[in-house]
Amino acid sequence: MLSSNTIALVKSTIPLLSQAGTAVTAHFYDRMFTHNPELKDIFNMSNQQSGKQHFALFNALAAYATHIDNLPVLAAAVERINHKHASLNILPHHYDIVGLHLIETLKELAPNEFTPDIEQAWREAYALLADVFITQEEGIYKTTEEKLGGWRNTRTFIVDRIVQESAKVKSFYLRSADNKAVVDFQPGQYIGVHVKPVECQNVQIRQYSLSGEKQPNGYRISVKQQGLVSNHMHSLKAGDEVELSPPAGDFMLQSNMSPKVLISAGVGITPMMAMLESIATLTQPPQTHFVHACINQAEHSFAKRVDTLTTDRIEINADIWYEQGEGHHQGRINLAQLSLPTESGEFYLCGPTPFMAAMKQQLLALNVAPERILYEVFGPHESL
């Protein structure tokens, strides 16, 4: 437990953090990667270049300082980060490194304001937070490792086959190299893929949603070609190897009979396909609405499979929007046009952040309770 004095001192730095903004986190990352370049094998360097990671870390620091006297408020955010860290194989000694550079960054950027008393308060506050993360992440590692087919850190998989799902999306069927069983996952979760593209000096780790039901000895992910690692993935062929972390993620289909509404755009369809596949296996599935938007027919992934799963199933129906072309709803999704279970349903969102923010606003306008709107963000977490 932190003393009232420690809490007060940490809270007193909120204006300092706000004034410095992302300059704090930019300095922190520059410092850390200069002194500990090995961490470039863990952090997404593309997000470093875009500034997304700086923004996410700054928000996390500000949130921690703000709610340090009421940490349960941050429980959902902590759990989300725990799962992301598990896919990156974050270990206790990494927290020591991060803590060192965080304190030194604050001392270097604000030598007058960051007094010895405030430094000690932040050391105590960081130690408490690190202990929470280390304990919870070890729980994830241990639980996954002890399950049938489970493992810790990474495991080698073989690209068994590749299927072109649309103009820019390929599905990769990944089989365990030892042909042994693999751990189960919850629909909506992702898996960490560890690769080293030819043009990179460092290992690159990306989280890809599991896009179908678990195979006896492998998984399926579906990747849109749109960046460094996805370009590498699209260059793979059957027989190539990749390293995978175990499945993780707190975005998952709830196992109850409440109506489900799966809303996605573009490659955000991937976790929704795992959810839809799971729902379709049930003898008595809950009422399910599959709502998807994409640019046109050429970029409509899994079109035939969705038709197969929803045709002649009165409990499951699909509504598709095309921005261009004909054959479905035209333009952008308008949820008010649909008969949705706004009072009792669970609403799952995945796609570009602006899309999900727009969908959330539509749902709130339809009087959907905020706690029944669940979403997944690709990359550093953002609030909608």
Automatic annotation (TrEMBL):
Catalytic activity, EC: 1.14.12.17
Reaction(s) this enzyme catalyzes, per UniProt: 2 nitric oxide + NADH + 2 O2 = 2 nitrate + NAD(+) + H(+); 2 nitric oxide + NADPH + 2 O2 = 2 nitrate + NADP(+) + H(+)
Residue ranges annotated for the Globin domain, each copy included: 1-138
Enzyme class (EC, first level): oxidoreductase
Domain FAD-binding FR-type: 152-254
InterPro entries: Cbr1-like_FAD-bd_dom, FAD-bd_FR_type, Flavoprot_Pyr_Nucl_cyt_Rdtase, FNR_nucleotide-bd, Globin, Globin-like_sf, Globin/Proto, OxRdtase_FAD/NAD-bd
Keywords: Detoxification, Dioxygenase, Heme, Iron, Metal-binding, NAD, NADP, Oxidoreductase, Oxygen transport, Transport
GO molecular function terms listed in the Swiss-Prot or TrEMBL record: dioxygenase activity
The protein's required cofactors: heme b; [2Fe-2S] cluster
PANTHER family hit by this protein: FLAVOHEMOPROTEIN (PTHR43396:SF3)
NCBIfam families reported for this sequence: PRK13289.1 (NF009805)
Physiological role: Is involved in NO detoxification in an aerobic process, termed nitric oxide dioxygenase (NOD) reaction that utilizes O(2) and NAD(P)H to convert NO to nitrate, which protects the bacterium from various noxious nitrogen compounds. Therefore, plays a central role in the inducible response to nitrosative stress.
Protein name, as recorded: nitric oxide dioxygenase
Organism: Pseudoalteromonas aurantia 208
